[in-house]
Design goal:
The protein is mainly alpha-helical. The protein contains 4 helices and no strands. The chain has 2 domains: 45 residues; 37 residues. Helix content is 62%, strand content 0%.
Length: 88
């Protein structure tokens, strides 16, 4: 997950404050995330929700694969899991 620092001034800051003050969004971060999703829809970044979900799944699988290769995540065999949780 990436983090980005964004500074707002002028009109953007005023709009952001109003969106939070009026309860449209609970936080500035929530409003920013919703705005990005809206831009993605407006500019049809993905052809469908399914394409978006597929891309997210691929990225998650790649992240897990990388973590396994780096030794940051351990994979347990079926036998190890069954033993650990008392399954027979």
């Amino acid at each position: 997950m990436g983090e980005t620092l964004v500074r707002f001034e002028g009109a953007q800051e005023l709009i952001m404050d109003k969106l939070v003050e009026t309860g449209v969004y609970k936080t500035r971060s929530e409003a920013i995330r919703a705005g990005i999703i809206g831009l993605g829809k407006e500019y049809e970044v993905f052809k469908s929700i399914q394409d978006l979900e597929d891309e997210l799944a691929v990225r998650k699988m790649q992240k897990i694969s990388d973590e396994i290769k780096q030794g940051k995540r351990r994979v347990f065999s079926k036998k190890e899991v069954m033993k650990k949780y008392g399954f027979k």
